[in-house]
Automatic annotation (TrEMBL):
Protein name (record): Uncharacterized protein
TM annotation in the entry: 12-30, 42-63, 75-97
InterPro entries found in the cross-reference section: DUF6338 (IPR045919)
Originating organism: Pseudosulfitobacter pseudonitzschiae
Keywords: Membrane, Transmembrane, Transmembrane helix
Top-level taxon of the source organism: Bacteria
């Protein structure tokens, strides 16, 4: 066992596997994804590590200075396996969260996970704008509320729920009025039928 834990082996592991895991971990902060199979994660980490290594060597080629003397061997190593992969992970994560260039990554044979595990997660993603919602349940009852900066939605497999920071009463002519006294609501989505998101045009009407 001790023969496997030597500096040369660790450097190879960090360069061609750990760097890829760093990219995956940072990328996951931007998107909600299904947990892939271990074999897929391993393959993806190796491929990302190779991409990171190519980019690192390209950057060194652009500035042909003796970086080991400028930064030091350890600083250069940590830049290669932590700093640069962190930047790449953030770029890949932002790219996935916006749905850009996914076909390009498929062409690279990366086992990319979709940006959201379910449509519910996509609907309540981090870039969800503040707006009014209509929650309809199976028995036909409805809740009218504001999903704002202090609202929250969770899609746990067994206990999905939504917290609306403000609840409204709607008159027969469609006018929304805040309840008196003001109320918020935490609702289980077990029997939910639909959630409607009102656009700016809808609220103007």
């Amino acid at each position: 066992m001790s023969s496997l834990l030597n500096p040369a082996t660790f450097e190879f592991f960090a360069t061609y596997l750990l760097a890829g895991y760093v990219i995956i971990i940072v990328r996951s902060r931007f998107v909600s994804t299904q947990r892939p199979a271990t074999s897929d994660v391993l393959v993806e980490a190796v491929i990302f590590s190779l991409i990171n290594q190519l980019l690192f060597r390209f950057l060194l080629w652009l500035a042909p200075a003796r970086w080991e003397e400028v930064l030091g061997t350890q600083t250069l190593f940590f830049t290669q396996v932590l700093l640069l992969p962190g930047i790449l992970g953030a770029l890949f994560g932002y790219n996935l969260s916006k749905g850009w260039n996914e076909a390009f990554w498929r062409r690279l044979s990366l086992p990319i996970a979709r940006p959201s595990q379910r449509a519910y997660d996509f609907a309540f993603s981090e870039d969800r704008e503040v707006g009014f919602v209509i929650v309809t349940f199976g028995d036909g009852s409805q809740v009218f509320g504001l999903f704002g900066e202090h609202s929250l939605a969770a899609s746990d497999a067994e206990h999905g729920d939504i917290y609306l920071e403000r609840i409204y009463d709607v008159s027969e002519d469609g006018q929304w009025q805040e309840t008196t006294p003001p109320r918020s609501a935490l609702m289980s989505l077990k029997d939910m039928k639909s959630i409607e998101f009102l656009t700016n045009e809808d609220t103007d009407d």
